[in-house]
């Protein structure tokens, strides 16, 4: 099957890493669905990316399994199959455990960890049929803890471990599973506004390129966990 006949779903694809991944997949010939909590944001991203290939925007909240199931069903109703899931949607709430609110903790875990589980759970049967690929976006914070990172570290440590377990669960079903663990990326994450000062950081197209490289890998080989960081960060 050529890439032009393959279908990908990118959660949190309206901006940032998800947007960069969606663009890369479109350039490879994939048909792509991007999700956002806002239909307007999903549609805006789809409009901007439409010059690169066939794309749709779907409203979906990764914190809700039912919402994820509805989005996957809409994709299947339109294209009939699913070959790649990029579970990217995530948020950051940072602060000392003394200051972190229960609401911030819950929203971080619900989005970053439960959201990955719900996304995979909603897609797994379709991916088993297509012998597809699951790629989760974790973080270097998924193995490196830091002060003020209680909620974020917990969520990303969880994503890293969860993805590796899913890899073992599904590889005998013909489904490949990898997690990408970026360091500093020039995105809108945590209310950042990308600028020229972020030129040293990983760029969203770099993660898109990495996803493409994984999908091109010989089927006999599985890079299951990939750490990626800026090559020349500023000296502290």
Automatic annotation (TrEMBL):
Where's the Ketoreductase domain?
Answer: 6-186
**Classification via PROSITE patterns:** ADH_SHORT
What biological process terms from GO does the record include?
monocarboxylic acid metabolic process
Q: Which Gene3D superfamilies match?
A: NAD(P)-binding Rossmann-like Domain
Enumerate the InterPro entries for this protein. KR_dom, NAD(P)-bd_dom_sf, Sc_DH/Rdtase_CS, SDR, SDR_fam
Q: Which SMART domains match?
A: PKS_KR
NCBIfam families in the cross-refs = PRK07326.1
Please give the family membership noted in the entry.
Belongs to the short-chain dehydrogenases/reductases (SDR) family.
Which named protein is this?
Answer: SDR family oxidoreductase
Source organism (scientific name): Christiangramia aestuarii
């Amino acid at each position: 099957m050529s890439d032009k006949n393959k279908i990908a779903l990118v959660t949190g694809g309206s901006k940032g890493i998800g947007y960069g991944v969606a663009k890369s997949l479109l350039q490879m010939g994939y048909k792509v669905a991007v999700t956002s909590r806002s239909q307007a944001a999903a549609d805006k991203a789809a409009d901007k990316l439409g010059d690169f290939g066939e794309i749709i925007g779907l409203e979906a909240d990764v914190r809700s399994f039912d919402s994820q199931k509805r989005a996957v069903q809409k994709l299947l109703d339109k294209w009939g199959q699913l070959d790649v899931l990029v579970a990217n949607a995530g948020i950051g709430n940072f602060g000392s455990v003394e200051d972190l609110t229960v609401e911030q903790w819950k929203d971080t875990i619900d989005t970053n960890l439960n959201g990955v589980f719900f996304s995979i759970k909603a897609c797994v049967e379709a991916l088993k049929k297509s012998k597809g690929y699951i790629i989760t976006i974790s973080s270097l914070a998924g193995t490196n803890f830091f002060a003020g990172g209680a909620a974020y570290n917990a969520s990303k440590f969880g994503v890293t471990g969860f993805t590796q377990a899913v890899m073992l669960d599904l590889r005998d079903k013909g489904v490949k599973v990898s997690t990408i663990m970026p360091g500093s990326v020039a995105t809108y994450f945590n209310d950042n506004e990308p600028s020229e000062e972020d030129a040293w950081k990983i760029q969203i197209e770099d993660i898109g390129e990495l996803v493409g490289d994984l999908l091109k890998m010989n089927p006999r080989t599985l890079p299951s966990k990939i750490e990626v960081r800026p090559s020349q960060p500023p000296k502290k």
